[in-house]
Write a structure and sequence with these properties.
Endonuclease III, domain 1, Endonuclease Iii, domain 2, DNA-binding
Length: 236
DNA sequence: TGCCAGGCCGGGT
DNA sequence: ACCCGGCATGGC
């Protein structure tokens, strides 16, 4: 995954009439991409692995998720029937390294229930459903919130929906592009209003935001060398 | 050595 | 409608 998309960013069409906000978001993207290059998200072999990883990585470092994914693969259980047939206790033990293993075992099971009850255990069938409706169905699963649902839609289903996470809000707030009160939907709408609805662009953009957040938003000295530091001197 | 990771839920104000 | 504690491992 991540290599099958070679689409170019669509020009024109849905592009915003380039007002300030649109320019800023596209400009930020270009700078991040120029600086970091392609991020190759989502690191997974197939759509199911993406969906599982999306739940396992909730408030958790990705390296810990990798260990859990490895355990599941090792047992040959990283597929819908494999996980579906697992006891809660066994599943929890396998995903232990990813933390919150009891809640996550329940969340994975809840997702699998939806997958098997409504889509015959087939992700292709699941993603053939109309996106906004599927989003609502996913949000109905206990343990799947907006970011997790959108991550599944974008990275597993290639639905052009922008994934917002804590880094996204933090960085946009730091640069005075949003207020601290902005909620998930609001931030998402900003991106989707001013950017072309291209899954590949959304894919790369979110990954780049996570990258710049990890690399530069930890400590103050790093912040000055951040590829987005230029934003501090533009406004007012 | 404490703090934090690619959140979300449920209960209390 | 917010706010907060709980959930847990592993790396810096």
């Amino acid at each position: 995954m991540g290599k099958r998309n070679n689409r170019r960013i669509r020009s024109g069409k849905l592009a915003a009439p380039s007002p300030p906000a649109g320019n800023i978001l596209l400009d930020i993207y270009k700078r991040l991409f120029d600086y970091f290059g392609p991020q190759g998200w989502w690191p997974a072999d197939d759509a199911f692995e993406v969906a599982v990883g999306a739940i396992l990585t909730q408030n958790t470092a990705w390296r810990n998720v990798e260990k859990a994914i490895y355990n599941l693969k090792e047992e040959g259980l990283l597929n819908p029937p494999g996980l579906h047939g697992l006891s809660l206790e066994h599943l929890a033990s396998l995903i232990r390294p990813s933390g919150f293993y009891n809640v996550k075992a329940n969340r994975l099971k809840a997702f699998l229930d939806l997958l098997f009850n409504d889509y015959k255990g087939d992700l292709d069938i699941m993603f053939s459903e109309e996106a906004s409706r599927l989003r609502e169905r996913l949000l109905g699963v206990k343990g799947i919130g907006e970011e997790t649902a959108d991550s599944m839609l974008l990275y597993a289903g290639e639905v052009p929906i922008f994934v917002v996470d804590s880094y996204t809000k933090r960085i946009l707030f730091m640069h005075k592009i949003i207020s601290s009160a902005s909620d998930y939907r609001e931030v998402q709408q900003i991106f989707m209003k001013w950017l072309p609805h291209d899954p590949e662009l959304f894919n790369e953009y979110h990954a780049l935001i996570v990258k710049v957040g990890k690399d530069f938003c930890k400590k103050k000295p790093l912040c000055e060398r951040c590829p987005l530091s230029y934003l501090f001197s533009v406004d007012k």
